[in-house]
Design a protein that fits this description.
The chain is mainly alpha-helical. It contains seven helices and no strands.
Length: 166
């Protein structure tokens, strides 16, 4: 099936080449008079071809075709990027799970005392966000602190003291 931007039946070689060169020109396309000079044809001939062969409609169809191709390419690239990111995230999670498993096996009670309050709050914040993301929930609540960022140093010290008692 012939597309509007393809060569049309009975379109002359000269008209086709003139159309094709203008169709493929960078946007914005030059005027018909400027294009006629570029292709070496009289401006009247180029105007007649443009009217006879509906160049404006064909340019529009061509531009839509190119735009659709670009959109498809962008969607494909986005899908590929998403797939790669998911794969990398899963690999990173496996590494973290292995490291945490090893750490838990060798962790001594005294090492818990070495953890700082801000380290504990950061771990809790990251773990909570990961769980919320996994469940399809928002990770932030508008108007509220996302984690322990708004706690003062005194608050974090108190939290550390409570942790030590546990």
């Amino acid at each position: 099936m012939t597309q509007p931007y393809d060569r049309q039946p009975q379109e002359t070689d000269s008209a086709w080449v003139a159309f094709q060169r203008l169709r493929d020109h960078d946007l914005p396309r030059p005027s018909l008079a400027d294009h006629a000079r570029d292709v070496g044809h009289p401006a009247a001939s180029v105007r007649r071809w443009a009217d006879l062969w509906n160049w404006q409609g064909r340019f529009l169809a061509w531009d839509r075709n190119l735009d659709q191709r670009r959109q498809n390419a962008a969607e494909s690239a986005l899908e590929e990027m998403t797939r790669r990111h998911i794969e990398l995230a899963q690999q990173a999670q496996r590494i973290v799970a292995m490291a945490m498993s090893r750490k838990l096996k060798t962790l001594e009670e005294s090492e818990f005392a070495d953890l700082k309050a801000n380290e504990i709050s950061r771990m809790l914040d990251v773990a909570a966000k990961l769980e919320r993301l996994s469940r399809g929930e928002a990770t932030e609540i508008p108007g509220q602190a996302a984690g322990y960022e708004k706690l003062s140093d005194d608050d974090l010290l108190q939290l550390d003291k409570i942790r030590k008692k546990l």
